[in-house]
Sequence to fold (89 residues):
Amino acid sequence: MNAVRVPGSPCPCCGHVMNGCTGLTGAVEPKPGDLSICIRCAAPLKFGPELELERLTLEDLAQLPQDVVGVIVRARSAVIRANNSRGLH
Fold:
């Protein structure tokens, strides 16, 4: 998948700076409010007004449809598995 470049922004949970993203179906330009996952710590995130990364709060999660929450859970699991297989914890 091709990544879309975004302004470099640190994960608010682990500090890993991310400057690219991909959508579930390929390269998609993110918009404020879109969801993301930290590729390092698997934290659920959202893009802020300037595409800076923000924590996805429990209140945010409670407002999401269950199928979206399921996608987040599966994406987090995939990141954790990939990082574990590379020796990144």
Observations:
- Residues 66-85 form the longest helix (20 residues).
- The chain has one domain: 4-85.
- Residues 4-85 form one domain.
- The helical segments are 58-63, 66-85.
